[in-house]
Design goal:
This protein folds into 3 domains: 367 residues, no CATH class; 124 residues, no CATH class; 120 residues, Jelly Rolls (Sandwich). It contains 23 helices and 18 strands. With 738 residues, it is an alpha+beta fold.
Length: 738
């Protein structure tokens, strides 16, 4: 054969090898691109908003910031998405980011395939690649989250580490070291990649022939001493970590049970999402099968796989336990997804070699049974498999049951029966080649059926997670209402302030901030609007002068309104900024329609008036309500006090309408000064009372105090409203008394 023909043959062989893998990648990309197209708006706040703030700032100024305040970029992901924000149209930029994320996250199939090829043949490696590419967490490819880059990068690092151990070539070792060192910059959780590398070195040393020969001479005392030394090392490392980390100290001293329980929750969710068997097989292949010939590549894989399972498992458990003390009790599967490639490669080894250590299989199956049959049957809120929500954003492994509940009316009992059947049936297929080794066709059929089922189950879970995300996005879109970019359309990207009041649901504000990049600062008068980024309330000086962030002030502002208590009246401005009203936009919050007003501000920026203590449905709470007028000449104040919205038992309460001078205190906040007038009345269920008070021009402070509050749930246990309520209150000024 000529040299030319030889080269042509090699090219053809390489294309033959690459084509199936490329087709898997392209097919998944088509599916995930469609899912990204259908997800019309972000909704996972504040992750998606914070990353957007950082990347927009980098695109505009070259520096990372949140709401104008400098901040660490935290991840290379914000640099990856920043160029898209050079596009003027927000919708086009958002689409570009989603589609780029899909192409990057789906690329996990390539490093997973290469990792698998170190230990298995082409077909088994294709299975592993497909499995890693269809886990439910691939639905994150439609989100603006760091997992889109971190997941394939972690798989790449695991391949490079394994390749370095297998070849022992300097170039691969350098590549593995550099990639591992850069991993924490891709995402904070990937600090476990260097830890995995270090643990893999220890496991390789422990499993070496020299180590085996050394341990062969150990006495019982030597083994006891080694165990003591191991635990001593663990305690030493934990003590050092506790000395440098309050979080580590708190969790390991007071909440050790949460480390175990919440770590198992995450593993259980991951196991359900991938069909349980990859967890069983991935753990079982870590133990040498009887009669197995020594093979360096397999020893390397076991060392790297075991190290990654330990490192990411410990990180996930510790993080979940810590979050339960400072934020919320969560199932943190999203921090564990990085081990999915090694679990599928381990499954590929089991399917190809068709021989496992039965004791290891039994132990792994017992653990899986405990996880899916018990541990995650009672998770957050006591709802089995988190089926009480449409989609659990931190644990997409539950999505297949959540959507089955929604569309197929599965109960938790049905879900548990199904997952236990999957475990039992999968074990039969997994062990069939070993139990029926002489019947090759039966063994081949069992392997093929199991491989196809696992890919199909995982892909179904991914589609379920994407379906839930798309549904939530559509609901969020209706909450904000079209046009999403109404602020940018009217301000032409001039600096705009968002000033809220009494917000119990911040999702509409987060969406507004995402879709309108002219909003550069967000605040509230009562602290009800939070991050990501600075959100502190403004300082207010005499005359209503607003000091917040920018020394030069803002050109425009979006201000909140409060609902009218009386029927057929428009909402009234509970945040009333001086300037000209140039637009308004209705949206939904807390199950009610509300209105934002866009104001072209005066300079310097100042408030005409503000109200505090009023919830989105108009009710006052335990601290009652206050209204401060900084300027104005209308002589008639109308105060409406109502319990028309409460039709429960009678509970009459004295009400005091107190009018006095407005004073700015030392904290630059308005308060009631000397009282000049007081009107007393009584309010009761279903009643509405109107008080007219003649007031002097200029600054005023008004308080409405309801003596006897009530809790609707106390009167009717079926009523889920557990707030302490006073009355529905409204303040308006008139030039003439009607």
């Amino acid at each position: 054969m000529s040299a030319y023909a030889t080269r042509q043959s090699r090219v053809f062989d390489r294309l033959t090898v690459a084509f199936p893998l490329a087709m898997i990648y392209l097919t998944l990309c088509v599916l995930y691109l469609f899912e990204a197209w259908a997800r019309i708006t972000p909704w996972l706040f504040g992750d998606e908003l914070e990353l957007t703030q950082l990347s927009r700032s980098i695109a505009a100024t070259g520096r990372a910031a949140r709401r104008g305040e400098a901040h660490s970029p935290d991840s290379v992901y914000v640099f990856f998405t920043a160029p898209w924000w050079l596009i003027h149209d927000v919708a086009a930029a958002y689409s570009g980011i989603k589609y780029a994320d899909v192409l990057v996250m789906a690329s996990v199939v390539f490093p997973t395939y290469l990792l698998a090829r170190l230990v298995v043949g082409r077909n088994a490696a294709l299975f592993a690649a497909a499995g890693a590419g269809v886990i439910p967490s691939l639905a994150y490819s439609s989100y603006i989250v760091e997992e889109n880059v971190a997941y394939p990068y972690a798989a790449l690092c695991l391949f490079l580490i394994a390749k370095a151990f297998v070849t022992r070539r300097r170039s691969w070792v350098i590549a593995a070291v550099v990639a591992s060192a850069l991993a924490p910059g891709v995402r904070g959780e990937l600090v476990m990649i260097p830890a995995t590398f270090a643990l893999a070195v220890l496991f390789m040393l422990w499993s070496s022939e020299r180590s085996h020969r050394w341990r062969a001479s150990w006495t019982t005392g030597d083994w006891i001493g080694s165990v003591v030394l191991l635990f001593g090392a663990i305690f030493l490392i934990s003590g050092i970590a506790s000395h440098h980390s309050l979080e580590w100290l708190t969790i390991t001293r007071a909440y050790k049970d949460r480390i175990f329980n919440m770590g198992n929750w995450a593993v259980g969710s991951l196991a359900i999402g991938v069909g349980v068997i990859p967890l069983v097989a991935g753990l079982a292949v870590l133990v040498r099968a009887p009669g197995e010939a020594p093979q360096r590549s397999l020893r390397v894989f076991r060392s790297v796989s075991g190290a990654s399972l330990v490192a990411f498992g410990l990180y996930t458990a510790m993080k979940a336990a810590y979050l339960s003390t400072v934020f919320a009790t969560r199932v943190e599967e999203r921090n564990l997804i990085y081990v999915a490639p090694v679990l599928f490669v381990g499954t590929a080894i089991a399917l190809e070699r068709r021989r496992l250590n039965l004791v290891a299989v039994g132990a792994a199956a017992a653990y899986a049974l405990y996880l899916v049959g018990y541990a995650v049957y009672h998770v957050v809120g006591g709802v089995p498999y988190a089926m009480g929500v449409q989609l659990y954003s931190d644990a997409l492994g539950f999505a297949i049951f959540q959507q089955a509940n929604r569309y197929l009316y599965w109960t938790p009992a049905v879900a548990r029966t199904v997952v236990l059947a999957v475990l039992a049936g999968g074990l039969v297929l997994l062990l069939a080649p070993q139990l029926f080794a002489a019947r090759r066709r039966v063994a081949a059929a069992a392997v093929t059926v199991l491989a196809l089922f696992l890919v199909a189950w995982s892909l179904t879970g991914e589609i379920a997670a994407a379906t839930g995300s798309v549904s939530i996005a559509r609901s969020a879109g209706r909450t904000l209402g079209h046009p999403y970019t109404w602020v940018d359309d009217l301000t032409h990207l001039r600096p705009t302030l968002y000033l809220g009041e009494g917000e119990s649901d911040q999702n509409p504000e987060w969406m507004l901030e995402f879709w309108n990049r002219s909003i550069v600062r967000v605040s509230s008068l009562d602290g009800s609007v939070l991050g990501p980024g600075p959100s502190g309330g403004p300082d207010i000086k005499p005359g209503g002068l607003v000091l917040l962030g920018s020394p030069a002030g803002y050109d425009y502002a979006v201000e909140d309104t409060c609902p009218s208590v009386l029927p057929n009246e428009a909402a009234w401005p509970c945040v009333d900024l001086a300037g000209a009203r140039i637009g308004s936009h209705s949206y939904s919050a807390g199950g009610r329609k509300r209105v934002w007003r866009l104001i072209r501000l005066t300079h310097p920026n100042r408030l005409r008036a503000q109200a505090t203590g009023i919830s989105p449905d108009g009710w006052t709470g335990p601290s009652d309500s206050a209204y401060y007028r900084f300027s104005g000449s209308e002589p008639w104040l109308r105060v409406v006090v109502s319990r028309r919205g409460w039709g429960g038992p009678s509970n009459p309460s004295p009400v005091h309408v107190i009018v006095g001078k407005l004073v700015i205190n030392a904290n630059l906040q308005p308060i009631l000064g000397t009282v000049t007038k007081q009107v007393d009345l009584t309010i009761d269920s279903t009643l509405t009372k109107i008080v007219w008070v003649r007031v002097p021009p200029g600054p005023l402070a008004i308080h409405v105090v309801v003596d006897k509050k009530f809790v609707p749930h106390d009167y009717d246990p079926r009523n889920g409203d557990v707030r302490q309520l006073g009355a529905q209150v409204e303040y308006r000024f008139f030039a003439q008394k009607p």
